[in-house]
Amino acid sequence: AARDLGGEIEFKENGIIQKRAREVLDRALEMLKKIEKTGLVKAIERGYFADIKRPANGGKGADGVVERSKQYVNPFEQHWMS
């Protein structure tokens, strides 16, 4: 069955597929380190994602942003905004 096909496929050591996968992972790691150093909001402002820049205090869709409830909690916010 096609479900078992993955168990039959091997990729050549240092072949095209493995080299490309390594390159993609290395570039992703570089980008994540850059974002960690810069901060997520600054990374978005600078266009790290698909070369699309968005200001921290506005941008496309800002008119759809609403004020948060006093009970609103985002456990990741402090990490993202640093």
From TrEMBL:
Signal peptide span:
none
Q: Name one GO molecular function term.
A: cobalamin binding
InterPro entries the UniProt entry points to: Cbl-dep_enz_cat, Lys-AminoMut_A, Lys-AminoMut_asu_sf
SUPFAM superfamilies tied to this protein: Cobalamin (vitamin B12)-dependent enzymes (SSF51703)
Q: Which Pfam families match?
A: Lys-AminoMut_A
Which residue numbers delimit the D-Lysine 5,6-aminomutase alpha subunit domain? 2-77
- Put simply, this protein is called D-Lysine 5,6-aminomutase alpha subunit domain-containing protein
